[in-house]
Specification:
single chain, alpha/beta, globular, seven-stranded parallel beta sheet, 7 strands
Length: 174
Amino acid sequence: MKPVIGVMGSATSPSKKADELAFQIGREIAIAGAILVTGATTGLPLKAAEGARSEKGLVIGVSPATNKKEHDEFGLPLAPHDFILYTGFGFKGRNILNVRACDAVITVGGALGTLNEFTIAYDEKKVLGVLVGSGGVSDHIEEVLDFCQRSKLPVISSSCPRELVTKLLSKVTY
């Protein structure tokens, strides 16, 4: 079985640097032979999907919409996904399926929605990765965990996409 890595991040692109990092993380996931799962959205998850596609990787999107028509109405992309699962659960409900489909989750940039995905992944005890330097909540995960006084699960942090994917995959077990 191939490992499944989710990339959760901002549906807007905060900077060119974040876009480049997200694209590279997608490429590295595909190069490693893993499957990429995203929220079938715009912004940084889309950049990761484009990166995976550039290396002929398998890309699965988990949509908040009920069907293709609603997905289009939300302004969400179809390409470059190989398959889109239409959940009909809205954005927050979709996040649970999005995370549960993954062996590991990488947080890239992001705000409240991304933090929601991270906390779900944390509670589900997923292998957790943070792409440092991608902006947003990703650059504050350690502070959030400290503030919440959570017993810390290991969170793998790196500003290097290849290193982050390699370290995450070394922790994925079946």
